[in-house]
Amino acid sequence: MKDEPVAKNLLTQMGSAFIRKEPFSLALIISPWNYPVNLTLVPLVGALAAGNCVVLKPSEISKSTEKVLAEVLPQYLDQSCFAVVLGGPQETGRLLEHKFDYIFFTGSPRVGRIVMSAAAKHLTPVTLELGGKNPCYVDDDCDPQTVANRLAWFRYFNTGQTCVAPDYILCSPATQERLLPALQSAITRFYGEDPRSSPNLGRIVSDKHFQRLRGLLGCGRVAIGGQSDESERYIAPTVLVDVEETEPVMQEEIFGPILPIVNVRSLDEAIDFINRREKPLALYAFSNNKQVVNQILDRTSSGSFGGNEGFTYLTLTSLPLGGVGNSGMGRYHGKFSFDTFSHHRACLLSHPGLEKLNEIRYPPYTNSKEQLVSWALGSQSCTLL
Amino acid sequence: MDPFADTLRRLREAFSAGRTRPAEFRAAQLRGLGRFLQEHKQLLQEALAQDLHKSAFESEVSEISITQSEINLALRNLRAWMKDEKVPKNLATQLDSAFIRKEPFGLVLVIAPWNYPVNLTLVPLVGALAAGNCVVLKPSEFSRSTEKVLAEVLPRYLDQSCFAVVLGGPQEMGQLLEHKFDYIFFTGSPRVGRIVMSAAAKHLTPVTLELGGKNPCYVDDDCDPQTVANRLAWFRYFNTGQTCVAPDYVLCSPATQERLLPALQSAITRFYGEDPRSSPNLGRIVSDKHFQRLRGLLGCGRVAIGGQSDESERYIAPTVLVDVEETEPVMQEEIFGPILPIVNVRSLDEAIDFINRREKPLALYAFSNSKQVVKRVLAQTSSGSFCGNDGFMHLTLASLPFGGVGASGMGSYHGKFSFDTFSHHRACLLRCPGMEKIYSIRYPPYSPRKLRVLLMAMEARGCSCTLL
């Protein structure tokens, strides 16, 4: 919250220059169903810390969590400065007609556009945490079991319903052959012979998403898993191979426990494949060779990047979490949250006297005044911020 | 017929090919921009004189020098700004490399206004180039002479595979905005700001909007009227009042108004002479449309100082209006001219209420010998920026972020803020491919013991510092 003093030039030397952090005022947080506690409350932390009043709109799809947030949470906060509002797309639409001073939205790119358009009418700044298909390049030079462990955990965590989960793999046919048994091994170790009976595997949030995912099981060829059970909204940890770029599983963000493998013949082809598509929220590269990892990092763009690892970076509040391009704008976590929900006001407090010093800048203008003023303007003490 | 498709495609191809990534390339562009300013300083001054009757002093100080400073700052700091920023880690990531990588967005559109057509076009350009983007510049068609120099001369100093100037009016702008950009930087009115943001929303393009508003200026009873009048007058009539951060109106008590008026007259006479129209240091209104608009405002309240105008020159005298009602046009729109209305308030509280009833302005000013008063105005209001006991000097500090809030805009720039505005900050974590035994603790089947260990590892920071 503290005022941040900044470097001055000669003309402002007698004053005090600093950045004052101010709340925007009324912040709206719209959160999704997949991590309904985290993705509702972590933004709330930032908004509260920055001094805003907050309206929370949790997802109606994660119904039980919505109930707890609506009924219990307000008891712990000052309700003159905080409110939970409920409803579906229609209510959200009505809510968005109102003017807010900041809108923080986590959800799909499609709805992100709607939110930003609504915000534009009121010139409301936004942070949009969206999604995409997060590519995962697996190099020939790797230990397949290590890679498979890491891939499997991050893919099937929360039943794949994670915006930063690896969405699809890019690798050579040879590496695919090594990966498949390793993936099967990892899945069996993690979830047992019958993943459906494992307490450690989740379920799909809704019938609509279940149907959508079951449809994707028909793409390519099922190499591992593929089972599903409508009564439980259960989908087995699945790996698909022989997948074409044009098939549905490669067209939309999967958001489920299905991992398609797309073959490429080289690193260059993988990078081209990635760069032909929208910038994703996350991007992963697995290789024993540092050069390969760095090449992918250097030649692509994404919200965030993991080398030889999945979304562990999320646990570092010193890293900004956010998207780029179609995967979003703005970022948060840690101090980034506080800064996101604050207006950084430039302040200069000058001396009310010492007017003689200022006469150099007033008309009638002369060449010598001009030179002096130009020089004094350029003279900043410390240049590195 | 899409006049822009080819240009945009060319720039995107250059970006995809990686032309703008190396520091050497960016530095070369910045140096090119610097040479353009130096070699054509006179040409630019003449253009500014034609467009706005801007004096050489004002051109130098508020357009050319400021731009040159930004270029120099960017050149000095480019590599430091571009560098991966290492960040503190927790136990779980102790063996990893964690850092923030700065990346260009890609294709950036900079839309600039007519009032400081060199500064407000080129300073954003500095940031966009330093950050490694390809840039499309859309200068204002109202500052015609400057537009011509920017369109015809500037491109020769930059790599034209990565840079283009596009021209046109509202219709062309609309067409341009249908295309997808990776960043849009707009300086102009709130009304057009909404249009730009709506267009950007269709492509999920992030934006910085430097807009405007009515910048209040509270003058306390406890002040030296001549000092205040000097400062007020200079910042109000600089560039003939056509400044987004100029004090727009004064709030003070009737008593203070009585002391201010003769002081303002004295300042105006000292600055511009007995006949301001013949002063080389006073500019002109940019267009007939704005001249007519401003001449209309002269009918509000009562003219206490100035009030003369001449259509043939688009001249409006440095003017002060009193007895102004809140409902009159001069208090309804951003003035953007050499007219300073004074509105009376009976107390500091009333002034603060008045300010807070209205849209958040781009700038806010408070003049008082009392530090407490200045601090109260600062603490009880919000605005893009704030200056106590002076006008927009804060603009000259590249260490301060320049931007609006609420209806006056979003985002900020100048100095490193420009570089950061035009960069995507990509969170990166690089782990070594081995040591799998250590990391296996997180895998299912889950157990309470595993959970405890993991939570501890995520929480604990090594020996690093928690303050960022």
Automatic annotation (TrEMBL), chain A:
The active site is at 129. GO terms for biological process: aldehyde metabolic process. One of its GO terms (molecular function) is aldehyde dehydrogenase (NAD+) activity. Its EC number is 1.2.1.5. PROSITE patterns: ALDEHYDE_DEHYDR_CYS, ALDEHYDE_DEHYDR_GLU. One of its GO terms (cellular component) is cytoplasm. Gene3D superfamilies: Aldehyde Dehydrogenase, Chain A, domain 1 (3.40.605.10), Aldehyde Dehydrogenase, Chain A, domain 2 (3.40.309.10). Residues 15-343 form the Aldehyde dehydrogenase domain. InterPro entries: Ald_DH/histidinol_DH, Ald_DH_C, Ald_DH_CS_CYS, Ald_DH_CS_GLU, Ald_DH_N, Aldehyde_DH_dom, Aldehyde_DH_NAD(P). Pfam families: Aldedh (PF00171). It comes from the Eukaryota. Keywords: NAD, Oxidoreductase. PANTHER family: ALDEHYDE DEHYDROGENASE. Belongs to the aldehyde dehydrogenase family. This is aldehyde dehydrogenase [NAD(P)(+)]. It comes from Panthera leo (Lion). The gene is ALDH3B2.
